[in-house]
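Appendix B. Worked example

We walk through a single record from start to finish. Start with the input: the chain for Transcriptional regulatory protein DegU, Microbacterium azadirachtae, length 231.
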Amino acid sequence: MAAPCVTIVSADTLLAAALSTLLCEKGVFDVSAAKSFEDVTAGNPDRPSAVVYDLSGAGPLDPGPIAAFTSGGRKAPVIVLTTSESFDVVPALLDAGVRGIVGRDADADEFVTAVTEVAGGRIFVSRGMMDLLVAHVARCPVDRAAAHLQDAESLAPRERDIVRLLSTGMTNREIAAALHVSEGTVKTHLGRVMVKWSVRDRLQVVLRAIGRLHVTPADPGGGAEGSEAPR
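Next comes the structure step. The output line below is what the pipeline stores for this chain.
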């Protein structure tokens, strides 16, 4: 696959320069910078691309500019950098069409992985933001009995094992190692789960599974890679 074209959208020129340098050091990325979405130029339709939008110094969340960009016929998916520690930003950003969310605790490798995954057509939510999501759903006072029974019985034992591990923040590679199967087998089982549950991606699998399959939220101090979806 061709190297992705990446545009950093940030009012902070120093941050934009630092992120550009990081991406270039980590791989063969074609990186440019823009002050706003209006300044983002059309990329090559034959190459994967992504836009990294810096929300770290933007104050209260305003998903309007993101939604306008993602719904305006542009092909480039958006990855957001945010310093927010509130769960509320996650559904707001996803509703605005964001395909990647990277929190303030992400390291360089996780950021580069987010760009690569999203440019490749997948969704990525960093470990820190996934922890917020898991904690929020775990606290929600909902009636789970009927949904738990229906969801649990719809999955084969191996599918349930994979969903549980996925919901604790593991990547496909980590799940495969834990269950002593190939990554291809993990992807096949996840595909079947998505069909059975009528969901589009790994993130929606996690949202549906948390609290319904007695999943234990991921340890915030764990050492696994970011919780990306899908892969």
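Two observations about the output. The two ends are 15 Å apart (CA to CA). The longest helix spans residues 183-197.
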